[in-house]
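Supplementary Methods. Inverse-folding protocol.

Structures were first reduced to a discrete structure-token string of length 370. This string, shown here, constituted the complete conditioning input.
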């Protein structure tokens, strides 16, 4: 469970939202690397009811109000479409914000922290590690369906909640800056990892150049499609609810498919220290392709299809490079729980990049036959 970086008066925060019943407790919840997430427990006439209460990390999301405006738009659009389609369980199939007592989508506390409250999606789990191909298929189908859902989002372009979030060349430049500055004297211990990243300079701009030249379409994408950002039904494993909407903004389908490859093909945890456990399981990859194409196949272009496996390599390389950058910069971005945590995470990612590279032709063949 993620420990919040500090304690908060969650009882006071909860009282700002239009909730029924009595406050019981709010416990740190989930394994996200960014926000402070709590499982809020209320008692409604003796019946326990849970909510998700989240403090937005405004050190990372510099425009939290713009972010919440995005999130509210996406939630409302998803709910409206589900209701239109007659879905009986709309509040389980898309995130639902609980408004504040004054009817706003988020609460600002006296210290300037932005808080939001969601209905808790019960009976479903965000998994940190993929268990079987059925889960991979459902996760990929759900994220593809999410892209289809937001494709007709009304109200103009969404705010960029983190500018250049997946602009891999900018991430590469930042990495090189951190390496040059070496503010914590850590560069000498990571020469192999640094060389690995530098040797792949030519990969960094493939997608951004493709978008700039109009060869790859810009779409509204989720941009953080790690496996634990989709809740799978505990009984059926169906991908019921896509969560973590902070980075929903213009992007590329390749980022979303790519991060699924990164997080749903290996049986090892993202921070596994035994690199021999990192593996690219082809049945998982096959399930990702079939699940993603089942919901996104109708709108993907030929070029996007062709680049799906490369997207997997690029996203894994990008995140590996981001963990390495954070290690060099002194662990200032991702939450860490132990010394060397970011470096451990970096190493699993770079190992997976190697494995993806070795299987690129096989992965391309999988896409081609689907
Ligand atoms: P972060 O940006 O820090 O990753 P997330 O929005 O992904 O934060 O939330 C952290 C965790 O909280 C998720 O991985 C998931 O386990 C859980 N979670 C978030 N929203 C809900 C919800 N509406 N219902 C149930 N669990 C949720
Ligand atoms: C973060 O928020 P979370 O834990 O779902 C990060 C992603 C990384 C991921 C690596 C806003 O995702 O970009 O891929 O960690 N989110 C942000 O596990 O930076
Ligand atoms: Mg998350």
């Amino acid at each position: 469970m993620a420990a919040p970086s500090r304690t908060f008066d969650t009882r006071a925060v909860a009282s700002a939202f239009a909730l029924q019943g009595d406050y019981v407790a709010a416990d740190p919840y989930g394994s996200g690397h960014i926000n402070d997430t709590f499982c809020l427990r209320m008692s409604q006439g003796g019946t326990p009811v849970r909510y998700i209460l989240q403090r937005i990390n405004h050190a990372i999301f510099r425009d939290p109000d713009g972010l919440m405006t995005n999130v509210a738009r996406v939630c409302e659009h998803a709910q409206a479409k589900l209701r239109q389609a007659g879905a009986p369980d709309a509040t389980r199939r898309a995130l639902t914000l609980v408004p504040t007592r004054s009817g706003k989508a988020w609460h600002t506390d006296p210290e300037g922290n932005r808080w939001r409250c969601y209905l808790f999606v019960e009976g479903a789990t965000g998994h940190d590690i993929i268990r079987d191909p059925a889960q991979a298929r459902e996760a990929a189908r759900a994220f593809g369906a999410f892209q289809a859902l937001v494709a007709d989002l009304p109200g103009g372009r969404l705010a960029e909640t983190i500018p250049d979030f997946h602009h891999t060349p900018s991430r590469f430049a930042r990495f090189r800056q951190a390496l040059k500055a070496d503010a914590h004297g850590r560069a000498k211990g990571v020469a192999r990892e640094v060389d690995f990243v530098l040797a792949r300079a030519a990969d960094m701009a493939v997608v951004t150049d493709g978008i700039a030249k109009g060869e790859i379409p810009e779409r509204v994408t989720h941009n953080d499609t790690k496996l634990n950002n989709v809740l799978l039904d505990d009984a059926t494993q169906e991908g019921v609810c896509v969560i973590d909407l902070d980075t929903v903004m213009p992007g590329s389908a390749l980022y979303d498919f790519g991060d699924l490859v990164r997080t749903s093909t290996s049986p090892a945890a993202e921070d596994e220290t035994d690199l021999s456990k990192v593996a690219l399981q082809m049945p998982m990859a096959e399930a990702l392709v079939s699940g993603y194409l089942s919901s996104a196949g109708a709108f993907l272009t030929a070029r996007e299809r062709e680049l799906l496996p490369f997207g997997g390599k690029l996203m894994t390389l990008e995140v590996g490079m981001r963990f390495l950058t954070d290690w060099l910069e002194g662990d200032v971005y991702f939450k860490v729980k132990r010394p060397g945590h970011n470096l451990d995470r970096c190493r699993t990612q770079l190992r997976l990049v190697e494995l993806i590279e070795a299987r690129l032709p096989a992965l391309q063949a999988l896409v081609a036959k689907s």
